[in-house]
Write a structure and sequence with these properties.
By secondary structure, the chain is α+β, with helices and mostly antiparallel strands. It has 4 helices and 13 strands.
Length: about 325
């Protein structure tokens, strides 16, 4: 007896059904993967929060951000280096030369030894090595962190510059004197004081999702891949200042104008701006060690009140 086979029409129908099923399942698979990456990012921040608390328990102060000068006038390292012993990174910590600047040749090898906890798995290129041409023309291998400290709570209100208060990770204060903050300085309470936010994808500068040329920032004098990106660099802080994205009509190049406009997160990772690949906002670490998701629609004053640790403002509930 002759065996019946599939007709061409039946085969096409089966293929069409399989295609529809794949199309229906793919978004669910992508959402599940992003949920797993987001949870991993959250766990990274919790690890960093625990390390910061252990650092404070040991030294009775918090590490500094910004440009903490060494006694010899050189720039010290990022707080990310300072907390390494409390993040199972004592072997990397022991290799760092704290008597020299972060970009000294003796600290070259450490730039490529960033722990995985400093990289968000959702950020493309995060945790991967990038090449940087230093001032001597040599190519260095470095890694960029996805997480930066909140070190600014300033804003322009009605044309005037307003500082809402001090941040827990001290940068350069108005009098220029080096200070180390303590948990007791969080007069608003640790649960109302921001410590850290995401600034992901910094294997390249991004503006509205578009990769920017790896050259000098117009009017600012900073290069991509240098102290703003390298995980050991001294500029490891950010804020929520209003920013406008502008385009040069002659070149088409995009640039950022600070203290104007209304955008505050997820528009660019230049200057360590708050930026993530999690839809709708960025992950954040609070001083009490809790991790919260800050949404793009948050009120500007709420963000600044959370950034400042001593403004007398408390924000109830979830953010």
């Amino acid at each position: 007896m002759r065996r019946a086979g599939f007709t061409l029409v039946e085969l096409l129908v089966v293929i069409a059904i399989i295609g529809v099923l794949i199309a229906l399942l793919l978004p669910a698979v992508q959402q599940a993967r992003e949920a797993a990456r987001r949870m991993s990012c959250q766990n990274n921040m919790k690890q960093l929060g625990l390390a910061l608390h252990n650092y404070h328990d040991t030294f009775k102060v918090l590490p500094r951000g910004g440009h903490p000068d060494l006694p010899n006038g050189l720039d010290a390292c990022s707080p990310h280096v300072a907390i390494l012993p409390f993040l199972e990174g004592k072997n990397i910590y022991d290799l760092y030369n704290f008597d020299e600047s972060w970009d000294h040749s003796s600290n070259l090898q450490v730039k490529n030894m960033m722990p995985s906890a400093y990289a968000c798995p959702s950020g493309p290129g995060d945790g991967e090595t990038y090449d940087f041409e230093n001032s001597d023309g040599d190519i260095e291998q470095r890694k960029a962190t996805s997480y930066v400290y909140v070190g600014d709570a300033s804003e322009r209100v009605d044309g005037s510059f307003v500082n809402f208060g001090q941040t827990l990770v001290s940068c350069t204060p108005p009098d220029g004197k080096i200070r180390y903050r303590k948990f007791r300085d969080a007069l608003d309470g640790l649960s109302n004081s921001l410590f850290m936010v995401e600034s992901a994808g910094r294997s390249r500068w991004l503006i509205d999702g578009e990769a920017q040329p790896a050259d000098r920032l117009p009017g600012r004098g900073y290069y991509w891949g240098n102290e703003w990106e390298c995980w050991t660099g001294p500029i490891a802080h950010t804020g929520f200042v209003a920013t406008a994205v502008t385009t040069d009509p002659s070149t088409g190049e995009k640039n950022l104008s600070l203290f104007v406009g209304s955008r505050r997160m997820n528009f660019s990772n230049r200057y360590g701006r708050p930026y993530s690949f999690h839809p709708g906002g960025v992950m954040s670490l609070f001083a009490d060690g809790s991790v919260h998701f800050l949404t793009e629609s948050m009120d500007v004053y709420t963000l600044q009140y959370l950034a400042a640790c001593d403004d007398g403002q408390t924000i109830p509930g979830e953010f």
